[in-house]
C-alpha cells in the first residue's frame, strides 16, 4: 500500500484480501458510527452494537495484518510511530485503532461515556472517509477520482445500516434507503466523470457486474424483507469492484 504515500506501484498490487478489507472497513466504520450515535442518544441497544463494532474492527485489522507479506515482521507498527497527516492510510490506521479503544472502553463501562462516545463518533468518521480518500489520491489510476471520496463513506453507512436492519432495529430502514439512494445516484454518475479510455476499461472489465450491483441496489426499495440484503450486496459489490478494476493504470503505463 505504499502508493498511499505517493510512491509508485507497478501493475496490480491488491488481491482478494484487500478487496475484503475495503468491505470490512466500511462495515466496521459504519457500525462504529452507529454505535457512537446510539450511545449519545442513550438507546438501550447500544451494548449489542458496541460488541458488533468491536468484532468488525478487530476482524478488519486482522485481515490487514494477515494479507501483508511482512506480517511476521510486524512492520505495520511503524504507521503508529510516524506522523504522516497527508497520508490516508495513516489516518485510517489511527481511526480504526482509536475507534476500537473508544468502543472497548464504552463496552466495559470505563471512563466518561459522553466524551468517549463523541471520540468514537470522530474516529469512526475518519475510518469512513479513509478508503475513498486513499483511492482518490492515486492520481496515476484513471478510474480512481474524487467522486470515490463521497461514494465510499456513503456505501460504508449503507453496510452498517444493513446490519442494523438485520438486527431488527426499527429506526434503520428509512436512513438505509436514503443513503443507498444517494450511493446509487453517485454510482450512476461516476462513469460520466471518467475519461473515454477509463470508461471503456470499466465497461470492458466490470460493466456487467457494475450494472448488476446498481440493479440489486434498486431492489432494496421494494419488499422490506429483501431491503437489507439487496443494499448490503450492492454496497459491498460496488466497493470491491471499483477497487479491483481501478488498479488499471491506463494504456501504455
How would you portray this structure in words?
With 253 residues, the chain is an all-alpha fold. It folds into 2 domains: 10-137, Formate dehydrogenase/DMSO reductase fold (Up-down Bundle), CATH 1.20.1630.10; 142-253, Formate dehydrogenase/DMSO reductase fold (Up-down Bundle). The chain is 68% helix and 0% strand. It contains 8 helices and no strands. The protein has helices at residues 16-41, 46-67, 88-108, 113-136, 148-166, 173-189, 196-218, 227-245. Helix 6 (173-189) packs parallel to helix 8 (227-245). The longest helix has 26 residues, at 16-41. It is globular, with a radius of gyration of 18 Å. Residues 1-12 have low confidence and may be disordered.
Fold topology:
Elements: H1 16-41, H2 46-67, H3 88-108, H4 113-136, H5 148-166, H6 173-189, H7 196-218, H8 227-245
Helix pairs in contact: 1-2, 1-4, 1-5, 1-8, 2-3, 3-4, 4-5, 5-6, 5-8, 6-8, 7-8
Short characterization:
The chain crosses the membrane at residues 20-40, 49-68, 88-109, 116-137, 143-167, 174-194, 206-222, 229-248. The protein has 253 residues and is mainly α.
Protein traits:
Formate dehydrogenase/DMSO reductase fold; Polysulfide reductase; transmembrane helix; NrfD_2; 253 residues; mainly alpha; transmembrane; globular; 8 helices
User: How does the helix and strand content classify structurally?
Assistant: mainly alpha
In CATH, the architecture of the largest domain is Up-down Bundle
Mass-distribution shape: globular
The stretches of 5 or more residues where confidence is low (pLDDT under 50) are 1-12
Named CATH topology of the largest domain: Formate dehydrogenase/DMSO reductase fold
Mean pLDDT figure? 86
Total count of helical runs of at least 4 residues = 8
Q: Determine the CATH superfamily of the largest domain.
A: Formate dehydrogenase/DMSO reductase domain
- Tally of DSSP β-strands: 0
Number of domains: 2
Largest sheet descriptor: none
